[in-house]
Amino acid sequence: MRVAQRARWPLVLCLLGLGWLLSPDVVPIYDGLTFPQDPYRYVGATPTPTTARATVSLRAGTNPGGVILNSAERGPQVQLYVAANALRAGASSSAVDLSVTPEAMTGSTTPDAPASNVYRFAAPPAVTLTDNHAPIQVTLRAAVHKSPPVMYYRSGPTDRWERLATRGLGHASFNATAPGFGDYVLVRGTGSGAASDARVFVVVGMLLVVSLVSSALLVLRRRGRVG
Question: Do 201 and 136 have their domain in common?
Fold first, then answer.
């Protein structure tokens, strides 16, 4: 009897693994035990997602210090870090307003399903980015994140989306260097064909293990009855 009970554990573990592999992506309500996050806010839904804003002081036509913009959700859905000397404006300008606003997906389409809202990084027309490689970093929180999404960028609503080198930061947040003003979004499924094939092989393997363990349990039960 003890042998049969021990044999059940591989079956239980396989069934749990199959459930995880076959379950669809879900919207995370909490993404950690220490720092719970608000449920993801979608454009067009209630509560509405918030905009990250900041007024950046300028000196001699550029920003002398860095600044961080955060949206107001608990677990910000968008964060923007602007390094010192990353902005250029007229020499007479003393400050500039920056914003990162959630937008509905319009115009050009992404290569796969979005994993976040579209966020538009904007400034007054007279403001440009400097060419001294001062970094601007965009961080987006994913609405769905079973597999790591990739951040994409476009300079305007009708422009083609460009894939960015994306880094995971934990708590379902993903970061990339911003090439300029424009739209940013996380996209799921990009480049996941090989991962999907691998998942199929894993599922088939687990099904085989479940079948073998079930057969072994049946044999053990019959022997127990005979004995």
Answer: no
Measured CA angle at 190 (ends 188, 194), to 5 deg: 115
Range of the domain at 8: 2-24+193-226
Asked if residue 36 is part of any domain, the answer here is no
Cis ω on the peptide bond leading into residue 76 (within 30° of 0)? no
Residue 206, pLDDT > 80, answer no
E strand residue ranges, the chain: 52-57, 67-70, 78-82, 87-88, 95-103, 118-122, 128-129, 136-141, 150-154, 162-163, 167-170, 173-177, 182-187
Q: Do 175 and 92 belong together in one domain?
A: yes
Answer yes or no: do 57 and 155 share one domain.
yes
Would you say how long the chain is, in residues?
227
pLDDT tens-digit map of 15-71: 555 554 444 443 333 344 446 789 999 999 999 999 999 999 999 999 999 999 999
Q: Give yes or no: residues 216 and 167 share one domain.
A: no
> Which of the four pLDDT bands, split at 50, 70 and 90, describes residue 218?
low
* Domain shared by 159 and 208, yes or no: no
Q: Cβ contacts of residue 166 below 8 Å, gap of 6+?
A: 148, 149, 150, 151, 174, 175, 176
Its pTM stands at: 0.70
